[in-house]
From TrEMBL:
It comes from Streptosporangium subroseum. Residues 7-150 form the N-acetyltransferase domain. Keywords: Acyltransferase, Transferase. This is L-amino acid N-acyltransferase YncA. InterPro entries: Acyl_CoA_acyltransferase, Bact_Acetyltransf, GNAT_dom. It holds the Pfam family Acetyltransf_7. One of its GO terms (molecular function) is acyltransferase activity, transferring groups other than amino-acyl groups. Signal peptide: none annotated.
Amino acid sequence: MSDDGKAEIRLATAADAAVIARIHMTSRVATMPYLPPQKRDHDQVTRWAEDVLLTTCRVWVAVRGAEILGYAALEGDMLEHLYLRPDARRRGLGTRLLDEVRRHSPGGVSLHVFQQNTDARAFYERHGFTVADTSDGHRNMENLPDMTLRWTPDSAR
């Protein structure tokens, strides 16, 4: 199913924190079942979104009507997060959020992805990201092997 361009991409505000937290939590459970169970509840993740995410990153949300369907967070040239509601996946919203991030990153974008996250890896590879390095998991709190992917405007088709 396609988004048909009906969703708007806008900068997130503090009022969006609770919905961003819900999307973050539900998407991780649905798309990364290999992760350990979440230790933080919705209120704690909302506080993280308010106090950390929205203060250290530029955050965009994909909105249709009054519903937030996903978000992307960029810190410098590092894409820290791109999550969609599980029922909003595969509609072009991730691409639209990624395009917004790339518009604000003229020198390129990097990100970390778990090696097991084959859907995300395929998504980013389709959008011109290449493997910059790999890790045994020592640099993430889940201790799972990950990869750094990089996109630069020169690598775009």
